[in-house]
C-alpha cells in the first residue's frame, strides 16, 4: 500500500493476518461489511483467483473477476480503473 501510495484511498484493509480464518472463508469480507455496516447487495469483491471467488460467494457479495476470464464470473475487468465504470454506469447485477 505504501509502496504505490495507495493507503489514502482505503479506509480499511484486511489481510490474512487480521482474521482467524483466511480466504476462502468469508471472515475477511464479513469484517469489512460489518465495520462499515454495508448492504451486501451493494458490495463487490474484485479478485483474480478461485479462492477470491469462493470468499465472495460465501459472504454473499458480488464477485468481479480481474484479468481472469477463466473464473466464469458474470462481471470481468482487465484494468482496475474499470471498477469506476462498473459502479458509475450501474453495470453490476443487483
Structure commentary:
The structure is a single chain. The longest helix has 10 residues, at 50-59. The chain contains 3 helices and 3 strands. It has a 3-stranded parallel β-sheet with strand order 1-2-3. The N and C termini lie far apart (30 Å). The model has no long low-confidence stretch (mean pLDDT 91). Helices cover 28% and strands 12% of the residues. The chain is globular and about 30 Å long. α2 links the parallel β1 (44-47) and β2 (62-66). It has a single domain (15-88), classed as HAD superfamily/HAD-like (Rossmann fold). The protein is α/β, with parallel strands linked by helices and 94 residues long. The chain has helices at 27-35, 50-59, 82-88; strands at 44-47, 62-66, 76-77.
Characteristics:
94 residues; alpha/beta; Rossmann fold; 3-stranded parallel sheet; 28% helix
Strand content: 5-15%
Q: Kindly report the CATH topology.
A: Rossmann fold
- What CATH architecture would you give? 3-Layer(aba) Sandwich
Q: Output the strand order for the largest sheet.
A: 1-2-3
User: What's the overall average pLDDT, rounded?
Assistant: 91
Helical percent range? 25-40%
Order of helices and strands: HEHEEH
Distance N to C terminus: 30 Å
User: Could you tell me the radius of gyration in angstroms?
Assistant: 13 Å
Query: How many H/I helices?
Result: 3
Structural class: alpha/beta
Q: Assign the CATH class.
A: Alpha Beta
Give the low-confidence spans: none
- The CATH homology group name: HAD superfamily/HAD-like
Main sheet properties? 3 strands, parallel
Number of strands: 3
**Tally of distinct domains:** 1
Amino acid at each position: 500500500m505504501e509502496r504505490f501510495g495507495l493507503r489514502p484511498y482505503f479506509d480499511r484493509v484486511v489481510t490474512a493476518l487480521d482474521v482467524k480464518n483466511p480466504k476462502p472463508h468469508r471472515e475477511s469480507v464479513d469484517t469489512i461489511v460489518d465495520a462499515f455496516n454495508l448492504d451486501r447487495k451493494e458490495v463487490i469483491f474484485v479478485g483474480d483467483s478461485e479462492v477470491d471467488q469462493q470468499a465472495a460467494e460465501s459472504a454473499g457479495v458480488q464477485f468481479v473477476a480481474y484479468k481472469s476470464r477463466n473464473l466464469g464470473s458474470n462481471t470481468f475487468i482487465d484494468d482496475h480503473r474499470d471498477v469506476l465504470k462498473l459502479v458509475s454506469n450501474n453495470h453490476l447485477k443487483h
